[in-house]
Structures are given as C-alpha cells and as structure tokens.
C-alpha cells in the first residue's frame, strides 16, 4: 500500500555572495503519504494531509506549506502547486474506508464526496511501483 502527494515546485538556490545562473529550478516533489488512519508519527505529514492542506485539488494556503517545504529542503521554495495523489488501489480503498469510519470530520455524506472536495479529480491510481 503506497501513496504520494505530488507537487510541482520551483526553488531558488541560496547564493551566499556568489553568482549562480540559473538560480531557480523546477522539480517534482513527492510527499509520501502514511497509511490511512495512522496517528501522526515521525513522518513529515499525517494521513489527513489532504484535508488540512488541499481544497478541490489545489493547495488551500500555499505560503505556509511553501515555508514548511523550504525548511525540509533547506532551499527557498518560491512556488508550489499540487499535481495529484498517486496511489495504488489498496491505498485508495483503505483511504475510502477510513474516511467512511467518521464522515463527520469531513462534513460530507460519502468518501467519494470527501475525495472530490479535497482532491478534485487529482487522484491517480497506479501500480505500487509507480508511486
């Protein structure tokens, strides 16, 4: 069971008094998602990341997330945009089941509604090796 939140990120290198050209780079960032229902641990994100950070397939508030990612990478992240949740079928099934256990925390009537509210159409089911 595997999943990752995928983002397009642009970061700027610290120059420290030297010239760097280019000083901005674009990359793909993957934040590996913990198993649904698992309480937060040493992972960088918890299983409710989608609820706390995304809305209709977009980052709800980019600046705080950009700041956190900048700290993780030790570079200045100047832009960040959500691309998709890449997950294998087992992860998506477990996520739906965990959401259904307590729909009240999402203010929704079904797991499908929750996934659409937070992830839009940005769930991409792939083989585990492709996560």
Q: Brief overview, please?
A:
The protein is of the alpha+beta class.
Task: Give an overview in words.
Helices cover about 30% and strands about 30% of the residues. It contains four helices and six strands. The strands form two sheets. A four-stranded mixed sheet has the order 2-1-5-6. β3 and β4 form a beta hairpin. It is elongated, with a radius of gyration of 16 Å. The mean pLDDT is about 95.
End-to-end gap: 10 Å
| CA gyration radius, whole angstroms | 16 Å
**How many strands, which pairing sense, and closed or not: the largest β-sheet?**
4 strands, mixed
Strand content: 25-35%
Helix content: 25-40%
Note the run of SSEs as H and E: EEHEEHEHHE
Protein name: LWR-salt protein
Organism: Halolamina salina
Give the arrangement of secondary structure elements.
Blueprint: E1 3-12, E2 24-32, H1 49-53, E3 54-55, E4 58-59, H2 62-73, E5 76-87, H3 89-101, H4 111-119, E6 123-125
Parallel strand pairs: 5-6
Antiparallel strand pairs: 1-2, 1-5, 3-4
